[in-house]
Amino acid sequence: MALRNIRQMGDEVLEKKCREIKEITPRILELIEDMKETMYDANGVGLAAPQVGVLKRLVVIDIGEGPLVLINPRLMETSGTQTGEEACLSLPGKSGVVTRPMHVKIEAWNEKMERIELEGEELLARAFCHEIEHLDGHMFVEKVEGELHDVVYEEDEE
Ligand code: NI
Fold first, then answer.
1. Which of 5, 111, 140, 146 sits at a 20 to 30 Å CA gap from 48?
2. What's the mean pLDDT in 7-19?
3. Residue-range domains of the chain with CATH
4. Is 131 noted as a catalytic residue in this protein?
């Protein structure tokens, strides 16, 4: 496993539409492990393949309940709304207010290429929407209400 370089906003790889994954290869499995490691190293709750320069429809998410690997994910249903702070590993130190659905149902494929359906609300619903949009070349900043602002990080208590 290895950490991958996280591409920053302005890199054109973040503005491209990603291709579907047709089969699981050793290279894809390595990418999945690297993306998880990179996400945890950066203290993120989600990471999409284009953020590490790979134009494939692959996302990893962990909102603190264990890692989710989503291949070719797609929104199926959304309901409700939530308005709150959102940030992205491709724009470190900044956040902004974005309105998202409160409940989201998605379909995706797992690392064995089995179709799965997942439902999320609150932070998980937000993460599903945010990460899936990366796969179509979109950043959350397009949806920010008002101004982006600086994030004040709390001191690590170690
Ligand atoms: Ni992001």
1. 146
2. 98
3. 12-150 (3.90.45.10)
4. yes
